From TrEMBL:
Main location, first listed in the record: membrane
Keywords: Cell membrane, Membrane, Transmembrane, Transmembrane helix
InterPro entries for the chain: TMEM64 (IPR015414), VTT_dom (IPR032816)
Gene Ontology, cellular component aspect: plasma membrane
Protein name as catalogued: TVP38/TMEM64 family membrane protein
Organism the protein comes from: Algoriphagus lacus
Subcellular location: Cell membrane
Ranges where the VTT domain occurs: 64-181
Pfam (any one): VTT_dom
Length: 213
């Protein structure tokens, strides 16, 4: 189990470093994202959908505020189009992470964990716990992308990964987008309550899972 934790930690730090670099450099802020999406709305709503999908997909490489983008998608496009765009973006990030890691993950695993025995141990533990990890990964920023990459690295069956990632992503995207669609600057409470509620529910699920396992 220690090997799996080490792999998860190293990947988390790698993803977090991109987030910190962007935050500290000020290259991409939430205000920037909001401005770009609003500007795209004035040109063509389809551009907003494309921008939402693109931003969420590149979250695998450059950490972006996922929940904020999903909410803005609903605010600018309405429901269900905002939810559809957010869902496609989240699904794309997971699929890219899985297949890239499936293709190149073994080399990365060998760098992180030198012992072949420990690598096999990590793969065995992810087979045992990976489904639950993916389903509950939205409890923390960065962790969903980490789980998608670990799934590819450890050779999790694609159908199993895709099912878990779909259940992990689509309800999350739809709920967030719907809250954005019924919010505005005068009444941002639905979006705020949704952000708090989503994390509370997922954290509660994590707590129950940890208690039982």
């Amino acid at each position: 189990m220690k090997a799996l934790l080490k792999i998860t930690l190293v990947l988390s730090l790698a993803f977090a470093s991109t987030f910190l670099i962007i935050r500290l450099s000020g290259v991409l802020t939430e205000d920037d994202i909001k401005t770009w999406l609003e500007a795209a709305t004035t040109i063509n709503p389809w551009y907003v959908g494309l921008a939402v999908v693109s931003l969420l997909a590149v979250d695998l490489f450059i950490a972006v505020p996922t929940l904020t983008i999903c909410i803005l998608s609903g605010y600018l496009l309405g429901f269900p189009w905002g939810g559809l765009s957010a869902s496609i973006g989240l699904l794309s990030a997971g699929l890219i992470g899985y297949w890239l890691s499936r293709a190149f993950g073994e080399s990365i695993l060998q760098i992180i964990v030198r012992s072949e025995e420990k690598r096999e141990d990590a793969k065995a533990h992810f087979v045992q716990y990976g489904l639950s990890m993916i389903l509950l990964s939205r409890s923390s920023p960065i962790f969903p992308e980490v789980c998608a990459c670990v799934a590819g690295m450890t050779g999790m069956k694609f159908s199993k990964f895709y099912l878990a990632w779909t259940l992990n992503s689509i309800p999350y995207a739809l709920i967030a987008a719907y809250s954005g669609s019924i919010s505005d600057f005068e009444n941002p409470k639905p979006a705020i309550y949704t952000m708090i509620g989503l994390y509370l529910v997922i954290w509660l699920a994590w707590f129950i899972y940890r208690k039982r396992n």
